[in-house]
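Both lines are given unchanged directly below:

***
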Amino acid sequence: MRAKTVTEQARRAQIVEAAIATIAELDYAETSFKAIAARAGLSSTGLISYHFRNKQELVDVVFADVLKRFGAFVQERMGQPTTREELRAFLRANIAFLREHRAEMLAFLRIRAHAAVTDGGIADSDHVALAELLRQGQEAGEFRAFDPDVMAVFVLAMRNGVVLRSGALDLDVCEKELVAAVDLATGG
């Protein structure tokens, strides 16, 4: 397979960005090559078809792209000295990414069930990593007794709820309340 030219790479990136914005606005089912082409300012859907065989391939690329960006963003903000601070950093990083990349987060959640690429089990890995962090906090005496797996489900559900409603919410208030709610739920 030949390497893509700089122009081809730029066109693919343009299409991916337009797909993200279109999925975020219209949702998955209503997103079409025609809508993406219009948003990208392309003269024809053929320009999309040249780079992506079908909607599924494009969705898979969007999913992987957003997942990579999100993971790197959150990871840069981790590494706190205590598990409680690490948990807070995780929550704040999620809201910070949402603040800066709302369309990407909406698109990611809307296509998650439709992406054919393996995401490395992101939902499972997020849950497993968060549950492990909660266990560590319990062992360190920073958190009260609770089922870490169940608490991880609750925390991730709250995070996802903020993402889905973020257009109607003050994200500064959301961040404060999300951290406070999780602090109260995990006790100390």
User: Anything to note?
Assistant: DSSP finds nine helices and no strands in the chain. The mean pLDDT is 90. The radius of gyration is 19 Å.
